[in-house]
């Protein structure tokens, strides 16, 4: 039976087979690209109920034209980006399906994600970082915690004055 089907396939004009394979490849590529773009979009990310307030604050920010993953995923390689995205995605899937009682009201970035976000901030704002001293704090979010997610995302330490000697230790920065 398989041999008979294979012989029928070989009997078809090679140009038709080539055109069909080319069309299938284009459709598959286009579908994959569109799917990946959607999975990077704020519209997709806000589907989880814990992301609703994050999304709302994001769309009103100066960074609203960006995709979530412009900031939240590494960009050194496509493989690294997909691995990081897959690991974070599986965690989100777990919490939104099996661990629903453990979902916090507000999600904070993990340490690896904070490193990625900081690197992406510095990359996009390279001219500012190069022209203004930014070595007073350990990362961008220390001072720019509300970018791009609004004042609702400040923690208690945000408005605290510096501790005695902190400005000297941090070369005059906050």
UniProtKB/TrEMBL annotation:
Region called Disordered, residue ranges: 152-174
InterPro entries (UniProt xref): Cytochrome_c-type_ET, Multihaem_cyt_sf, NapC/NirT_cyt_c_N, NapC/NirT_cytc_sf
Principal subcellular localisation of the protein: membrane
Residue ranges occupied by any NapC/NirT cytochrome c N-terminal domain in the UniProt entry: 16-146
Record's subcellular location: Cell membrane
Highest taxon in the source lineage: Bacteria
A Pfam family it matches: Cytochrom_NNT
SUPFAM superfamilies noted in UniProt: Multiheme cytochromes (SSF48695)
Keywords, alphabetical: Cell membrane, Electron transport, Heme, Iron, Membrane, Metal-binding, Transmembrane, Transmembrane helix, Transport
Sequence similarity: Belongs to the NapC/NirT/NrfH family.
Classification via PANTHER family: CYTOCHROME C-TYPE PROTEIN, CYTOCHROME C-TYPE PROTEIN NAPC
Protein name from the UniProt record: NapC/NirT family cytochrome c
Species, as recorded: Neobacillus driksii
